[in-house]
Amino acid sequence: MPATDIRVDSADTIPVRQPVDTAPAVEANSAPAKSDPPPTQVITAQEISAEAASRKDHTLDILSDLNQQLDEAIETLNAAVKESPTALSFSRDDSSNRFVVQVTDTETGEVIRNLPGEAVLRVARQLESLKAFSLMNCFNLLPSGN
User: Fold this and answer.
1) For 70-77, what is the mean pLDDT?
2) Nearby residues of 133 by Cβ (< 8 Å), 6 or more positions away
3) Which of 20, 3, 11, 18 is nearest to 48 (CA)?
4) pLDDT for res 5
5) Are 99 and 92 in contact (CB under 8 A)?
6) Strand order, beta sheet including 111-115
């Protein structure tokens, strides 16, 4: 294996160079001393994996909390609108992750308008699918023949 390749097995260690300021102070009149390469800190694959898992769990917790707060805000808006003569309903379109406001006639229950309109939501969904396709293409994850 060439020296530039890195192979990581579960028990292997990966040398990681991190600059450490260990150079002695140089006097103004002296010639610069030949510097040694900075020391190498060794990090195991398990340590990297554990750190990544910890960060992933923390991020998922934050996203879960934000999602719960968002749902509570939507419920609060819907409750506030029910007290007024206006017939508005707030929701979130899951596929495009956009907020939707539905205006309805209180007497007939007929939907008067959705904000944003269905065309805007459709474009947002298509953009999300194009983004996923672009990422799959970037990392060569598309099935052969495409």
Assistant:
1) 88
2) 142
3) 11
4) 41
5) yes
6) 88-93, 98-104, 111-115
